[in-house]
Automatic annotation (TrEMBL):
Compartment list: Cytoplasm
Gene3D superfamilies: Mur ligase, C-terminal domain (3.90.190.20), Mur-like, catalytic domain (3.40.1190.10), MurE/MurF, N-terminal domain (3.40.1390.10)
UniProtKB keywords: ATP-binding, Cell cycle, Cell division, Cell shape, Cell wall biogenesis/degradation, Cytoplasm, Ligase, Magnesium, Nucleotide-binding, Peptidoglycan synthesis
Protein name listed in UniProt: UDP-N-acetylmuramyl-tripeptide synthetase
Amino acid sequence: MKLTQLLNGLEKKNQISVDTEQLKIKGLADSSADVAANYIFVAISGFRSDGHDFINDAIDKGACLIIGEQGLSGLPVPYIQVENSRKALGILAKNFYGDPAEKKWMIGVTGTNGKTTTSYLLKHILEDNGHSCAVIGTIQNIINGEARKSSNTTPSSLEMHRMLAESRDDTAIVEVSSHGLSQFRVEGVQFDLCLFTNLHPEHLDYHRTMDNYFQAKKSLFDHLKVNGCAIVNTDNEWGSKLANLLEEQGKTVYATGKSAQSSIRIHGFNTDASTITLEENGKTDLICSPILGVHNMYNTISAYTAAILSGISKEDVRESLLRFDGIDGRFEINTLPEGQKIIIDYAHTPDAIDNCLNTAKDCGAKRIIHVFGFRGDRDISKREEMLRLSASLSDQYVLTLDDLNSVSYNEMVDTLRQLQSDQGNQKGTVLPDRTLAIKQAIEQSEPGDWVIITGKGHEAYQQSYSMNTTSDKETVCHITRTLDNIRLDAVY
Ligand SMILES: CC(=O)N[C@H]1[C@@H](OP(=O)(O)OP(=O)(O)OC[C@H]2O[C@@H](n3ccc(=O)[nH]c3=O)[C@H](O)[C@@H]2O)O[C@H](CO)[C@@H](O)[C@@H]1O[C@H](C)C(=O)N[C@@H](C)C(=O)N[C@H](CCC(=O)O)C(=O)O
Ligand SMILES: Nc1ncnc2c1ncn2[C@@H]1O[C@H](COP(=O)(O)OP(=O)(O)OP(=O)(O)O)[C@@H](O)[C@H]1O
């Protein structure tokens, strides 16, 4: 592709020569390791290293043009200085791959909790009604029906545009994280629908304040196509604020919530039957939420609204919801022959833990035994609240290891012990080996009890534990001898 086409929309700080404009570009790379002959290398100043330090490597590998933020001169190949390299990468990737988002029905989902659940509910409804849906998100990326490993919730803009270009699906659902937004990973992607699930304290190690975190999430809505719609859960205070701000900007907002002003108004939740009564334009509708918990009912409402705005009839959406068979690691229930329920859930925020434990209570759990831990290198400000909630809502809890990341085993165990002694109560114990913690919880459970294992959900273990299993699901299967894969028990 000719460089002039690629640079469309890019603000340059320096002029480039007519000869440079004629360069034929074979590819783009933001990692020197991926550079080949006639590539553009975009140097990004990162959190761990600085791409500008790898410019010479990139040139040795065949880069014919460098883009970066520093005022550099004297390079053996042309250099373009830009204000923001991550943003530049998105613009170049969009041009290089021919603006793939423009050719699809694009749906972006953001919020602290519920992005994955809402995305999979929506994917199911759309596919059940004849569409083909790509999903780019936390568990995996699904392109043309094939699952690919995902290492970030929202991949870099380069991978994003590449995957969208490879996808022959008519629709793409993208989970958009706040990190992704603040790092311009959806630069050049415009959405037909943008969904906001909720905002709760999380990632404050990165964003510092809730307002910064909110601003990052809000920026997704700058990516709405001209006729695009925002779908916002206004029962969350930040959602309500967002809906007002977007309306002030003249955007089309579908507010979902209990208030009378909502476009889709919630009249009531029936937690026993897992149903929701909704009202739109004076007409009420009863829909089933196929995953337990009021929090999952909110996800169902977001998916329902997005499906309707995608052109599916209410009747078809209602029918499709009845055929949904669950998501890995999202309130997955296994009922033991003796009557205990074992739940595996990805909850790793105070709000999510609150929701999970309360769902078990609402569903009549005799006793709740909660197994959980804290991730190394992640926002530590939420730990006390997570423990406080578990100590008050569960009947017994076991503090155990979650991913250590770069934190040492001893440091995390000391942290667990310290937190238990400062904030815990007599219901709790510390048992670092996650597999033994799960075993102890299951062994101590009695018919009618719910054992709730949170934090890892669908993910594989990073550490090895004494049982040699690779995930919570495998551990539970191993302990309970449930050899069949655990699947979500029917809610209805
Ligand atoms: C802290 C953070 O967000 N880092 C993200 C960021 O990495 P970075 O650009 O800072 O990378 P870096 O290692 O410092 O390298 C800087 C540059 O030098 C280049 N380089 C480096 C080495 C080399 O030899 N040659 C070279 O060219 C790198 O390719 C890069 O372009 O940009 C990368 C590309 O987009 C991301 O993969 C990476 O996510 C890391 C892996 C990560 O763990 N991020 C988490 C915090 C995250 O983003 N999480 C959210 C979900 C949060 C949630 O809701 O749970 C997500 O969307 O996944
Ligand atoms: N709407 C919701 N409100 C509060 N908590 C929720 C909601 N939906 C899901 N959760 C909780 O959050 C956990 C993660 O859910 P999900 O994976 O759908 O969210 P996510 O936004 O994709 O999370 P992440 O950004 O961490 O990948 C669930 O296992 C559940 O405990």
